[in-house]
From TrEMBL:
PROSITE patterns per the UniProt record, alphabetical: ZF_UBP
Gene Ontology MF annotations: zinc ion binding
A Pfam family assignment: zf-UBP
Transmembrane annotation, as ranges: none
Protein name in UniProt: UBP-type domain-containing protein
Domain UBP-type: 1-93
Cross-referenced InterPro entries: Znf_RING/FYVE/PHD (IPR013083), Znf_UBP (IPR001607)
Amino acid sequence: MTVNQVTPSARGCEECLAIGSPWVHLRLCRACGHVGCCDQSPHRHATAHFHATRHPIIEGYDPPEGWGWCYVDEVVVELPDRTPQLGPIPRYV
């Protein structure tokens, strides 16, 4: 499985920024660069992005955690590199 280097789409969860909602952590789609919030956040936008697009791999983006997750196989995956942040990232929770 190839994991792409991408450009992050926003300096926070795209959807949460649009509606003024807080998030806990950010996840980055390694297929297209969409930045969404984690499943501990109120709206779970990263998982919603997977269901809408079927893009399988996310990266722990904020804080930069150095791991990936495959939604399809439900396993942690090794990433060849970390995506540079479009900082500073606003803190909400």
